[in-house]
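FAQ: What does the model actually see?

It sees only this:
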Amino acid sequence: MAKQVAVLMGGWSAEREVSLVSGAAAADALREGGFEVTTIDVDHDLGRLIDALTPAPDVAFNALHGRGGEDGVIQGVLEHLRIPYTHSGVAASSIAMNKPLTKRLLSTVGIRSPEGAVHCFADVLSRHVIEPPYVVKPVDEGSSVGVTIVRKGDNRPRVDLADWHFGTQVLVETYIPGRELTVGVMGDRALTVTEIQHSHGFFDYEAKYVSGQARHILPAELPKPIFDACMDQALTAHQTLGCSGISRSDFRYDDGQPGIDGLHFLEINTQPGFTSISLVPEQADHVGVSFVELCRWLAEGATCHA
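And it is asked to produce this:
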């Protein structure tokens, strides 16, 4: 009898629309892979979600992104219901979503990130808390949501307060010029390094999810020590945080610096995108793992972590 898989998608975060696309793609691939699949558009109604998960499926495939789906919340619900689920567990998801905590933890294993600190958003809007150029980020959002760059000559972040829904604390980091790199991890192996080229100031939400906005070069054309360092650090980050299934680590590389001095870890994503232009499925395919095989591998490896 085919395993029954419930694909959780949608959610209530700023990444809802991307999650709907990811979930639909995963559902199609799982059906092709021989699973019986239902899809659930998750919202704040916990009772409705529990009803949708009754009787319990064999597996919950987590295709949610951002708050509520990537930060340990939905993972805790699934743990309570004892439904095996894909991707990382409660602790790893919660830690990885918190950028400052991730930076502090990974610094203990030699992974360097841009200099930065958490500041009150009101202070950041009123004055430069560090010398420009710098980057202002929400503490716990994904997909570059809410990220802005303050360049030399700017008076303050160009942020419309009416559109800010990301809390009173922000992470302010020194801006690292150079190249955008990313590495997917699948289980116990790093897949490859992709360089992302685009015309945006950084790899923002539009560059990530609008077709034609970015060019992916894989494998990235890098000096071998840099390539190897990216692969090693992505796997180390995945293992140090206790991630499961897949993750994706993002880096900036300033090739004007000697050796690996210019390489900086930015963040780790425990629920990387599953759209047609997403990076981890593209990397998996590059090393011989099709999208259907990747989804099947995730579903077959689903577990409860408690």
